[in-house]
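Table 4 source record.
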Amino acid sequence: ATAAAAVDLDAAADNQNVGLLYGAKAGDTFTLQVFVREVTGGTGYTVKVKYDTNNVESPTYAHGPLVAGAIALPAKVSGGIIEGGASLLGGSPVSGSGLLATFTFKARAKFEGGSTLSVTSISLRMGTTSRELVTGSLDAQVTADVPVKAAPAASFDDDGDVDFEDFFAFA
């Protein structure tokens, strides 16, 4: 992974750094946002996301607001990878941080366990050169599991047993 980019499974504006989405079930849609930081001189980009075709279907891509004025290229979908990108055709290069792209997926009818969404490449174009922002992958998890919250400890005297001592300490 890299510090220049981040992923977020919370569809709300801005990056909430949600890398794990609980309670997914068949038919649910979920959004993977791709954020970049401290871009200088950007004129275009491509982003590749790998996904599990056994659990996830119907991927879509939407161009984010960071590279304003760029023309979004049609998404390429093949073999569990979706690639989206955009390019400035004239205008001023972009500098700053923000939402680069959004990918939306749908849980299949037989969604089981969970699925990993892996951003395997973010290629940022700066004029005639390119810079890869991902080393390895940026992963996000979608799971059918629901988090289990531990019951509060009722042992007031911290001995691990709930007994008369706790009752007297509470009373």
